[in-house]
Structure prediction request, 100 residues.
Amino acid sequence: MAAEVVWLDDAKDDLLSILEFISRDKPKAAAAYVGAISQQCHILADFPESGPAYDSSYRALVVEKHIVLYRYDRQADTVLIAAVVHGRRDIARIVAKLPH
Prediction:
């Protein structure tokens, strides 16, 4: 049985920001890029522990230039997408601000 994938509001905002940023120059590419991120997150429903552990709470899924930070709650069988950030950002600082 597949896990439920839930996007937290901040992660939804991250995805929208990525879409808006890329759309300034390449609207079609923006839609494809954000679609690829969404598709990879959907795969987490069947393989929720496929991303390497970032710390004791979060896992990281690399999609192109971005990192999806997520948690897998085994008891609830739920994948919580917490953030989508560019790989050049200070990931440790971002994770420290996420709920633990």
Summary: Strands lie at 4-7, 59-63, 66-73, 78-86. The first helix runs from residue 9 to 23. The chain has a mean pLDDT of 95. The longest strand covers residues 78-86.
